[in-house]
Each structure stands twice: as C-alpha cells, then as structure tokens.
Write a structure and sequence with these properties.
The protein has 147 residues and is mainly alpha-helical. The protein has six helices and three strands, in the order ααβααββαα. Strands 1-3-2 form a three-stranded antiparallel β-sheet. The longest helix has 25 residues.
C-alpha cells in the first residue's frame, strides 16, 4: 500500500470514527439517553412516510430481521415505535413511529442537516460536484449493486 493509499485509508477510518463519535454526542442528549445511536438509525430507517414492515426496515439497515427484532423490542418498550398488524395480511407486522419516535427522528435528521451544511459550507460549486462524485464512488464501493 503506497503512502497516499495508506493516508487515504487512515483518513477514511478516522472520518468514520469521528462522525460516529460526534453524532453520538450530538444526538444522544439528556432527552434521548435511553436509546443508542444505533437505535436512532433504526428510527431513521422506519421513517415518517408510512408504516414499514420488519423486512423493509432490515433491508434498509442491511441487518437480519432477527437482529432488528431485538432492537425493535426495546424501542417499543421505551415508547418510540408501535407495532400493528397489516389490514391486508394479518401475518405482516407494521412498524410506525410514535410521537416520541417522530421527535427523535427529526432530532437526528437535524443533526445530519447541520453536518452537511458544515461540510459543504465553504465549498464552491465545482468543489461540491467533485466531493459529490467522490462520495458516489465510495457509496458504490461499499454498497455494490448485484446486477
């Protein structure tokens, strides 16, 4: 691995760790101390648009339904989500955010909006395009599409 590649690797690892640390400190405030940063990402995957089934949520998070179930049990117990049966298919359980869950969702989303503004704030349009192109390449690498 050349010096530039080694430096890029270290930078990516450091950025990931820093984002996770800063996000955790910013998002898990006194009001949300009963849940984890991972729980916030689950609430984000549930979303506010429509009720989602466990398979949809697990796919959005790239986890198994079994793994998600454990976390979802805790979130339901703490009042962030509710489970209901689908009217179309009673076997399907739908997850919806409660008012408390919606409040946490927006709190988390606001952090991300602030982070994006801070990152691109001093960039001109050409720099934003290059950054976006680089991030697309990173995303493609970490989320390969099976075609």
């Amino acid at each position: 691995m050349g010096n530039r590649s080694k430096g890029l690797n270290e930078m990516l690892v450091n950025l990931f760790n820093q984002v996770m640390s800063v996000e955790s400190q910013a998002v898990i405030t006194e009001e949300y101390k009963d849940i984890s940063n991972n729980d916030m990402h689950i609430l984000e995957a549930v979303g506010i648009d429509k009720p989602r089934n466990m398979s949809e949520i697990a796919k959005r998070l790239s986890v198994t339904v079994g793994t998600l179930t454990t976390n979802m049990n805790g979130l339901e117990k703490k009042g962030y989500v509710i489970r209901t049966r689908s009217e179309d298919d009673r076997r399907v359980v739908l997850i919806t955010l409660t008012e408390r869950g919606r409040k946490a969702f927006f709190h988390h989303r606001d952090f991300h909006k602030q982070m994006i503004r801070a990152v691109v704030g001093g960039l001109d349009e050409d720099e934003k395009r290059v950054l976006y192109k680089c991030l697309i390449k990173l995303d493609d690498y970490f989320n390969p599409q099976d075609i």
